[in-house]
Amino acid sequence: MKKIFATLVILAAASVWSAQADNNLPFIKFGVKAGIVSDQTKVDGGTLGTLFEDANTGYQFGGVVRVSVPLLPIYVQPEILYTTTKFGKESTTASVSHIDVPVLVGAGIGIGTTAKVRVNAGPVFNVNSSSKLEIGGASIEDSSVFDKSMGWTAGAGIDLFGFTIDFRYNGQFKDSEGEFVGATSAVKTKNMSISVGYLF
Question: Which of 65, 106, 173, 187 has its Cα between 20 and 30 A from that of 19?
């Protein structure tokens, strides 16, 4: 239900942004994006050892607003992204979903008349997280183990005919701490992502 609700919210927001784009606002563009995520989350489970240390692939999608600074090659780009990843192996797995709000500051250089190369970076605010653990056949819902603190993102991209391609590296300013099956745990979260979007 949470996934369906998040999907509806993002689609509704994208529709509103698309409609607003028809106003031809000179320095504001609205868009949508989707991509894949290579997650490298590790859980230091204390006496349980290190868990979930293998990289796993997930996906993300969401909406974008890009506000360009007049007369300068600088822009501010807030986004809202729904990301979900499943990782682990054998009898210990985790499915984690969260909504992130990155706020990027970037700069771009035009190449010819149709392309632009960009770099950007900024903080990432976590709005909501939910997770499901499968341990030895037992299922644990809404675990707080994977709750995220504020993070950061940095990367590069290219714009071409309204389409955008972005490569990013994402991490946390501070490891998340919690309790995992009765043991004190520390979660180190980092991932790489590649996405394709379109700006209206």
Answer: 106
